[in-house]
């Protein structure tokens, strides 16, 4: 390890601070840290870092580090100066690995916003053991991908354990939200499609429901757990549901959490994600419309000619919803779960602000602060981790203090 973390000049380094989401995270960090922490902004262009610092109350005195995500030496220099690196530099499949590797080698805690299965799988394969040896946490998916999913299952499974009603057997998370798109999100999806086109063998990984599990051989054989299906009625959710666009990533994170915890949430847990969830004819029509719109959008992105047209119409990297649009957003994720004894629980993770940007900036900031300030209270864990396994109840309480709802109720 390169020195003790306490000897490093910065408690937190924000990599990609001059980008759209990076700027939001810098603002959240400045407001939340209240000068308690030594923070640095890192990016390729000093002029843009200076602009972010000047526009962010409380950040004008922060250090600024020149940083190139594609240069391993630059990544190592950043990692060696920080106790925690929080990065918004994506697409992670294309730009994220060198920094994650530098943190694993330097014993530096790390958190990101990735929603890319292939990137996380590579980190698991190549960095997990190195991070374990160095005693650091590499925490993926610390935004709307996949904090609500991971923590909602943690809440329900913990309540069932406390009440002695057994492990979870079945769970479906129904997500509803209002928000916008940024160029970075679009670029990440594009990058994964490009990676799959270059290596079609990657589809076997992406489509595997246990793609991110520590050991595929140790996972139960529960049959098909599809992420895409026609609108259908869910007895567990009590309404008509359609596939959720983030399910192919979020479900893998939840299953990795369960496996890292020794399947404490449920050895035979069947977990899916959906959107919609309303009963009656209105719910059926809504679920059908959501499924059709999502299917058309995904097929459009998969067609090169149509994608080129969309590239001209959709936000470019560095662009995203306005401040007014971010304030108008909201999200509500409701997990409906049944245990092996038949007990039913409902857990809710909800908040205001655009889920992909305003709320995500809060989630990522609180994850970074938990790593920087609460290390002694975090779960005993190291390696390539998830929000629930790395941060657990500490993150739950931090998000509650930020005004988000994280609650669980026994339903039967």
Automatic annotation (TrEMBL):
Coiled coil: none
SUPFAM superfamilies assigned to the protein according to its UniProt record, in alphabetical order: NAD(P)-binding Rossmann-fold domains
Domain of life: Bacteria
InterPro entries: NAD(P)-bd_dom_sf (IPR036291), Saccharopine_DH-like_oxidrdct (IPR051276), Sacchrp_dh_NADP-bd (IPR005097)
Ranges where the Saccharopine dehydrogenase NADP binding domain occurs: 12-135
Name of this protein: Saccharopine dehydrogenase family protein
Organism: Aciditerrimonas ferrireducens
């Amino acid at each position: 390890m390169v020195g003790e973390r306490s000897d490093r000049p910065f408690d937190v380094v924000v990599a990609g601070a001059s980008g759209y989401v990076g700027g939001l995270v810098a603002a959240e960090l400045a407001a939340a840290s209240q000068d308690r922490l030594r923070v640095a902004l890192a990016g390729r262009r000093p002029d843009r870092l200076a602009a972010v610092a000047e526009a962010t109350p409380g950040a004008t005195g922060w250090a600024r580090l020149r940083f190139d995500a594609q240069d391993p030496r630059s990544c190592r220099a950043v990692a060696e100066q920080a106790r925690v690196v929080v990065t918004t530099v994506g697409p992670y499949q294309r730009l994220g690995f060198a920094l994650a590797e530098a943190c694993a080698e330097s014993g530096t805690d790390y958190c990101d916003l990735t929603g890319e299965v292939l990137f996380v799988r590579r980190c698991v394969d190549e960095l997990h053991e190195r991070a374990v040896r160095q005693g650091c946490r590499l925490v993926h998916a610390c935004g709307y991908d996949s904090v609500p999913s991971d923590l909602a299952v943690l809440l329900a499974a913990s309540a069932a354990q406390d009440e002695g009603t057994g492990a979870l057997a079945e769970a479906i998370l129904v997500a509803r939200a209002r928000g916008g798109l940024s160029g970075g999100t679009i670029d990440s999806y594009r990058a994964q499609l490009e990676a799959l086109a270059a290596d079609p063998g990657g589809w076997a990984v992406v489509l595997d429901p246990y793609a991110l599990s520590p050991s595929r051989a140790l996972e139960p054989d529960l049959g098909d757990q599809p992420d895409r299906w026609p609108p259908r009625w869910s007895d567990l959710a009590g309404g008509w549901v359609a596939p959720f666009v983030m399910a192919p990533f979020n479900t893998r994170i939840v299953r990795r959490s369960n496996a890292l915890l020794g399947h404490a949430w449920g050895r035979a847990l069947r977990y899916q994600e959906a959107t919609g969830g309303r009963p009656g004819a209105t719910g059926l029509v809504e679920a059908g419309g959501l499924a059709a719109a999502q299917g058309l959008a995904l097929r459009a992105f998969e067609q090169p000619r149509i994608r080129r047209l969309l590239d001209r119409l959709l936000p470019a990297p560095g662009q995203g919803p306005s401040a007014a649009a971010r304030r108008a957003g909201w999200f509500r994720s409701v997990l409906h779960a049944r245990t092996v004894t038949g007990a039913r629980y409902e857990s809710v993770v909800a908040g205001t602000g655009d889920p992909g940007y305003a709320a995500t900036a809060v989630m990522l900031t609180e994850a970074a602060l938990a790593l920087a300030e609460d290390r002694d209270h975090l779960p005993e864990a190291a390696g390539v981790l998830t929000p629930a396994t790395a941060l657990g109840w500490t993150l739950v309480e931090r998000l509650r203090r930020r005004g988000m709802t994280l609650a669980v109720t026994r339903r039967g």
